Amino acid sequence: MTDAAPFTPEVFEFLRQLKRRNNREWFTRNKPRYEAAIRNPALLFIAAVTPRLAKLSRKLPAQALRGSAFRIYRDIRFSSDKRPYKTHLGMQWTYAKSKDAHSPCYYLHLEPDGCFVAAGIWHPDNVSLNRIRQAIVANPPAWKKIRRGLELGGDRLARPPRGFDPAHPLIEDLKYKDYIAAVDLSERQICRAKFIPDFLDACRTMTPLVEFTWTALAPKARAAEVTL
Question: Domain map of the chain by residue range?
């Protein structure tokens, strides 16, 4: 399998132009460009990396990993911002049976001057968030090992979460509402021939976080089979 990524500088040129002309008339005229520069390369990229991404972990069910690209169309039904199109390209790989964006996953974000690959779980519901926090409290050594190589991002509480000891040595980590890490990328990296290995290397560094959050949310019988 070739390591050549399908993206070219045209993906960023199109997105820059879309940001300036975010209307249906312009997009309709330029839809063939969108499909050639963004949609089709994204599908090729997903097909190329998914089997290799699934091999990064021996603890996660490789056969359950699914990749998908987010739609370019914005949901404007309940938004005051009526611009119809997103000005970035998002792709995710999740172990969830559905396309739930709030499950442990890998994520690739392409946007002019704002590209990154991320992993972990973003905006989990309260029950899931509580289970992840409980897993951290239950196994501090495993969590500390993961944290040594990662810079967490996302939203945080100003105060300790309810039900957790404010004096806990990991209380600052327990305040997180998202458990995600990210690696910034340049447009040049995205478009260069060896981007696929770069992408997989970034995901490899964050795979322990995906494993930890997936295990915390897995059914007890399945979680017992996974040793962190």
Answer: 10-218
Closest CA to 112 of 188, 195, 3, 29: 188
Helix (H) or strand (E) holding 221: helix 220-223
How far is 58 from 214, CA to CA, in rounded Å? Answer: 13
Q: What is the pTM of this model?
A: 0.91
In the CATH hierarchy, which fold is given to the domain comprising 10-218? Answer: BirA Bifunctional Protein; domain 2 (3.30.930)
Pairing of strands 152-153, 105-110: unpaired
14-40 tens-digit pLDDT: 999 999 999 999 999 999 999 999 999
Distances in whole angstroms, Cα of residue 54 to Cα of each of 13, 129, 149, 198, 213 = 31, 25, 21, 16, 16
Give the Cα separation of 69 and 67 in Å (integer).
Answer: 7
- pLDDT one-digit tens code per residue, 47-63: 999 999 999 999 999 99
Q: In what order do the strands lie in the sheet with 105-110?
A: 66-69, 89-94, 105-110, 115-121, 179-185, 152-153
